[in-house]
Amino acid sequence: MSRDKKREALEEKYQLLRSVTNSNAASKASILVDASKHIQELKEKVARLNEDISTSCSYQIDPSISSNVEDHQRSFPKVSVQTLEKGFLVNVYSERSCPGLLVSILEAFEELGLEVLDAKASCTDRFELEAVGEENEGVDSLDAQIVRQAVLQAIRNWSGST
User: Fold this and answer.
1) What are phi and psi of 77, to 5 degrees?
2) Phi first, then psi: what are they for 11, rounded to 5°?
3) In terms of Cα–Cα distance, which of 137, 126, 136 is closest to 102?
4) Per-run averaged pLDDT (10 residues), the chain, 162 residues
5) Under a CB-based contact definition with an 8 Å cutoff, are residues 158 and 104 in contact?
6) Which CATH code, of 3.40.640.10, 3.30.70.260, 3.40.50.11260, 2.40.160.50, is assigned to 75-161?
7) Distance (Å, rounded) from C-alpha 106 to C-alpha 135?
8) Among 95, 88, 63, 96, which Cα is nearest to 151's?
């Protein structure tokens, strides 16, 4: 009985794999080959998307400066935003000091209607910001993606002015 259940469960998994990979194969070996091809296609798609992301960041490099894209991306601030029960936790980190960036980010918070409830910042050898922001009353509902985009835009504006 348990052998039949195992065989049935395995057959269901093959059918699921077949449907996820859009395979028309009938044999188990062919389903696995199609799944392997599908995984490779997904890896290539991820690589293309990562390349697109790195290309979209590279526009900020002044062509007259001889720094390369990797150096720029390593020094470009990284942003993460998490949704909290009431508000957002925003983290910004850069391996280098970014004079004036804190002001730009806080101005972005203000434009969004976010009130900073708590913040920790370091701007000496590198830039680090951890801030908790809460929506002011009367502000349209925000989500983490909108907050992240606003912070990234503030960074781009700051980068363009320095």
Assistant:
1) -60, 140
2) -65, -40
3) 126
4) 88 88 89 89 82 56 44 70 89 88 92 91 88 82 88 88 68
5) yes
6) 3.30.70.260
7) 14
8) 88
Q: How far apart are the first and last CA of the chain?
A: 72
Q: What is the structure's pLDDT at 59?
A: 43
Each domain of the chain, given as residue ranges in start order, spans 2-58, 75-161
Is there a contact between 116 and 106 (Cβ–Cβ < 8 Å)? yes
Structure token digits, residue 18: 């077949």
Separation between Cα atoms, residue 127 and residue 119, nearest integer Å: 13
DSSP string covering the chain: -HHHHHHHHHHHHHHHHHHHTT----SHHHHHHHHHHHHHHHHHHHHHHHHHHHHHHHTTS-TTS---HHHHHHHSPEEEEEEETTEEEEEEEESS--TTHHHHHHHHHHHHTEEEEEEEEE-SSSEEEEEEEEEPTTPPP--HHHHHHHHHHHHHHHHHH-
Residues 123 and 102 sit within 8 Å (Cβ to Cβ): yes
